[in-house]
Amino acid sequence: MRTIANDPVEAVLAVGLKDLWYPICPSEFVAERPVSLRRLGRKFVIWRETSGKLHALEDHCPHRGAPLSMGMALGDRIACGYHGVQVRFDGVVTSVPGSPGCKLEGAKATRSFHVQEACGAIFLYNSSVDVDQPPPLRLPEELTSDEFSNFLCYAEWKGGYRYVTDNVMDPMHGTFLHKQSHSMAEGDNTATFRVRETDIGFVFEKEGQRDVNFDWTEWADTDLHWMRLAIPYPKTGGPGGSFFIIGSYTPISENVSAVFFWRCRKLSGWQRDTWRFLYRNRLEARHWAVLEQDRVVLEVMEPDANQREMLYQHDMGIVRWRRHMRNLAKEQLAKEEATEQVKA
Predict the structure, then answer these.
(1) InterPro entries, alphabetically (predicted)?
(2) Contact residues for 298 (Cβ-Cβ < 8 A; gap 6+)
(3) Are 153 and 262 within 8 A, CB to CB?
């Protein structure tokens, strides 16, 4: 990848594409007090009403620029702790206590963002401009169907969020890096891969091997970018079929990523209860150990490691994804340029 300084497309991708949903934090991060989160190239303030309803604004008071997160939540408004200026969830200033009736009152002066809670996480729609209604948050069936049970695994890793996607788009690393894992010890050390297009993205999969190891990865765009893979479970893994992982990754800064993995399994009744108990008491630690192997490798890679690669057939999924992302970034830049021309 080119450096940000020389490539406007790279600058767009570094902070995350606009007009997409992103998971930004686990639900428990936001309790009674406003919370400041740096994500997607800016700071957001997230807070709840007493009913639990979520709101999000840019963490910037339009008066003097103080962080709104240092203030007090007042239902659907937040009062800046610096001078008491109150900003509603839609970005409109409703009160300026120090100068009632001034021109700031009634002005829409702060960026507002739509947020939604699902599957143990808070999702934010990273709109390029304020929108009245975002597209629906469309999650994969493993996170929405009653036939599946899931656990959210959240971590913050050093390194760009695209390195995480590269890692998941590389099934072959499971055969080597994770070969001691109870669920990834089988299968061939060599493989030929193919890309299979879908209506919402593509699948990168091994030819001639299925349900043996980490044999395929799916990337999808449903106004939320997410990835899916399945790993066969041995009998010691408890009842149910393959173990699914749904992943989605959000830039915190250029070199820090918010990493979301949902671990899912299709089962019901007593089997669901048995698996959830087994997961918490035995399997969760094993799964974190596997993720830790990924984290260690990614965090010690140089920031420009992907500029000095010698890729081969196993990496065609990464190449396919990177090319697609650059095309999306180019479309965003063209749209922004057209908007500026209209304004001019």
Answers:
(1) Cholesterol_7-desaturase (IPR050584), Rieske_2Fe-2S (IPR017941), Rieske_2Fe-2S_sf (IPR036922), VanA_C_cat (IPR044043)
(2) 157, 158, 159, 163, 164, 167
(3) yes
Instruction: Tell me the C-alpha distance between 94 and 102, whole Å.
Output: 11
Q: What is the residue type of 89? A: F
Kindly report the CA angle at 296 between 39 and 194, in degrees rounded to 5? 85
Q: Note the pLDDT tens digit of each residue in 52-68.
A: 999 999 999 999 999 99
Return phi, psi of residue 214, to 5°.
Answer: -80, 90
* Residue 44 identity (one-letter amino acid): F
- Backbone phi, then psi, for 163, in 5-degree steps? -65, -35
d(CA 295, CA 253): 17
Enter the pTM of the model.
Answer: 0.94
pLDDT of residue 211: 78
Record: fold of 22-125: Rieske Iron-sulfur Protein (2.102.10)
Within 8 A by CB and 6+ apart from 7, the residues are 1
What residue spans in the chain does CATH classification 3.90.380.10 cover?
145-325
What angle do helix axes 161-168 and 316-343 make, rounded to 10 degrees? 140
What are the start and end residues of each CATH 2.102.10.10 domain in the chain?
22-125
CATH T-level fold of 145-325: Naphthalene 1,2-dioxygenase Alpha Subunit; Chain A, domain 1 (3.90.380)
CA dist., res. 213 & res. 238, Å (int) = 17
Q: What angle do CA 160, 163, 164 make, to 5 degrees?
A: 100
Mean residue pLDDT across the chain: 91
Confidence at residue 4, expressed as pLDDT on a 0 to 100 scale:
54
Burial of 192 (0-12, 13-18, 19+ CB in 10 A): exposed
Q: Is the pLDDT of residue 2 over 50?
A: no
Ramachandran sector of residue 14 (left: φ over 0; alpha: ψ -120 to 50; beta: rest): alpha
DSSP string across 308-334? S----GGGHHHHHHHHHHHHHHHHHHH
Longest CA pairwise span in the chain (Å): 73
CA 211 and chain centroid, separation: 26
Question: 133: Cβ–Cβ under 8 A, 6 or more apart, which residues?
Answer: none
Q: Is the pLDDT of residue 75 over 70?
A: yes
